[in-house]
Amino acid sequence: MTIPAGTLVPRDARDFGRYELIAKLATGGMAEIYLARRQGSSKREVSVLKRILPHLAEDEHFVTMFRDEAELASKLLHPNVCRVDALDHHAGTWFIEMEYLHGIALSRIMTQLAKMNKMLDPRIVTGIIVQACEGLHHAHELRGPDDQLLNVVHRDVSPPNIMLTDTGVVKLLDFGIAKARGANSKTRTGTVKGKNAYMSPEQILGRPLDRRSDIFALGTVMYEMLAIKRLFQRDSDFLTFKAITEEPIPDIKERRPDLAPALRSVITQALARDPHGRFGSAKTFADAIRAAMGPLGGPATRSELSKFLATDFSDELASRAEILAAANEGAAPVAIGHEPTGRLPAPSTPPPKTPVPSAGAAGSAGAAPASAPIAAPGAAPVMRAARPTGPVPNWPPTANLEPVDGELEPRTSSPSDASNLAPSPTSVPTMIIKDSTVPVSAGGIELATLAASGDGGTDLLRAYRRRSLLRFLLVGGVIALLVMIGVWWTSRPSPDAPDDRRPPDRLPVLTEDAARDAGAVDAGRPPVMPLDAGLTRDQIIAMSKYGRYSVDASPAAAVFIGEKKAGDTPLVDYQLPPGIHQVRLVSGKKVKRFEITVLGGQSTNDGLIEW
After folding, report:
1. d(CA 385, CA 73)
2. Which of 428, 329, 365, 371 is CA-nearest to residue 111?
3. Tens digit of each residue's pLDDT (9 = 90 or more) over 239-257
4. What phi, psi does 45 have (nearest 5°)?
5. Other CB atoms within 10 Å distance of the CB of residue 55
């Protein structure tokens, strides 16, 4: 049974192994997201299940990538990283259990601010970015069992993957395309996936990546939060790639002249095209932000971020609480929200402020540690991160109705949300940020998701230039061919227009008798015009440009020379330029074809043709 996104799951379809599916939050191209709880647990203890779509469950490469994501994310136990609690297999498909975040993604926040034409306080922006830096630094510093760095690179740091929760905690989401040393899955040749406008120059150019690539992406997010304007987004992927790799980066001062010079300097360094010019780590980036904001009161604290969200986005939070209330009240399966899309838009009139349940933690007795190996399908839960059993500072129970995967965007903005963040000649939404899969093959094949992989990749800019060159050569060739045809067509003579290939009407026609009288016929040879036949030299030269052709047929027939009808038989002294000509006689349904050779100044006579 297909359940629309944004609706409660019918009671007869809620059983999912050890879990109860409560509501379907979103569906993407690779996975679907459910609000769920473990069987027998309190109604207040909810989590999120990310389940592979059935048609991908048999794709060995994708399943390996999915398990790599779970294995990596389960090791990232940090307040600023969305926690992954388990990877399991049920009903023929794999799924991940994650903590349930109650908050709003930066993409939604920035879209709403653009709609209201409102700028963010630099303290709010830096408070969010500093926490994101802390989550990234934890991922970058992750080590394997041999105590060696795993060299994790997120590679998709973008507004949809950064969430601000109602408690003021910033959560970094979706390590689904992260790169780490020793990952099982490898990149398929030429595959790149991510938010194009947030890729680093080296990611676009297919060069080796390290943590500094994520710093560039986070610097882009910081710039856009301050400017409320897209930095690199253009009308096409190719132009976006050129903007990131080649075009001058606008000074943030043009949009925010109120920023302190020290903060502008931090942004400039984070956006350096050469990785060596950027901050060496996310921690250094965060420290530089704190130093720049010190004289201004420092970055906003978590309590200040929580207050900001509750003040400016209370309706958004309330709409997200609506689904929890409906699930806990055991309501009948009904779409959450009022739009027919099945997604989760904010209602036109704010719903009652439903108290958000404090999602406690389900017990984890007997659970395997986060680093437990992945088991084969059908085995017991293969990975379980120990959930906190009591209050944990800076790790609040939270919930998430925004994308957990770049493929999933449960909220579809209304037309008014699609307005640009700044005046632009195009109508491209500037802060409705979705995932974009980049076709990089010359044949235009749209490629698969990028899995955890080694260094290197595909030079997207070169690929697009190669395709543009091929397209230019193809179009240029077609245009040149059309021009040649046009020149030929316009230069061809009109059948009715006289030209130098036809003798003027004033020139006398030399008949055979006249030629014989003039001595031009000798011993059965074709009539030849002597120079002393009473014609001027110019007349003789003009007449020598043409020969004559005569033919008769019984029964009578139409005579076609080439594709043009010359007349009906008998055809006498029909003027033709010298050369070989194709003759076709048509009499009723009978057709006779043959070649003739016409000599200048001479007559050719095929006599009587009998059928």
Report:
1. 10
2. 428
3. 999 999 999 999 999 999 9
4. -100, 90
5. 8
CA–CA dist 399, 327 (Å, integer): 14
Give CA–CA dist 549/575, Å, rounded: 6
Q: Is residue 385 a contact partner of residue 402, using CB atoms and an 8 Å limit? A: no
> pLDDT grade, residue 41 (50/70/90)?
confident
Task: Return the higher-pLDDT residue of 488 and 303.
Answer: 303
Digit-coded pLDDT (tens) for 48-65: 999 988 888 888 888 888
Distance CA 165, CA 9 (A): 25
Q: Distance between CA 293 and CA 287 in Å, rounded?
A: 10
Q: According to the model, what pLDDT value does residue 257 have? A: 95
Distance separating alpha carbons of residues 466 and 125, to the nearest angstrom? 39
Give Cα separations from 561 to 21, 286, 567 (angstroms): 83, 88, 9
Tokens representing 303 are 């309590």
Phi-psi region of 184 (alpha: psi -120 to 50; beta: other; left: phi over 0): alpha
Confidence of residue 594 (pLDDT cuts 50, 70, 90): confident
Q: Apex CA 215: angle with CA 466 and CA 370, to 5°?
A: 105
* Residues 451, 87, 47, 105, Cα dihedral to 10°: -10
- Amino acid, res. 483: V
The 3-state DSSP class for residue 93 equals strand
With 0-12 / 13-18 / 19 or more C-beta atoms within 10 angstroms meaning exposed / middle / buried, residue 296 is middle
Q: What is the largest CA-CA distance in the chain?
A: 130
Region for residue 139 given its phi and psi (left: phi exceeds 0; alpha: psi -120 to 50; beta: otherwise): alpha
Burial of 40 (0-12, 13-18, 19+ CB in 10 A): exposed
Number of residues written out for the chain: 611
Residue for token pair 């029964």: 555
Which of the following is catalytic: 68, 85, 88, 156?
A: 156
The answer to whether residue 342 scores a pLDDT higher than 70 is: no
Query: Residues 516, 520, 522, 526: what is their CA dihedral angle, to the nearest 10 degrees?
Result: -100
Domains and CATH numbers, the chain: 7-176+187-373+380-386+396-458 (1.10.510.10), 512-610 (2.60.40)
Q: Which amino acid is at 380?
A: A
Count of CB atoms situated within 10 Å of the CB of 327: 21
Is residue 432 scored above 90 in pLDDT? no
Contact 386, 367 (CB under 8 A): yes
Please say if 496 is a catalytic residue: no
- Give pLDDT tens digits for 58-89: 888 888 888 887 888 888 999 999 999 888 98
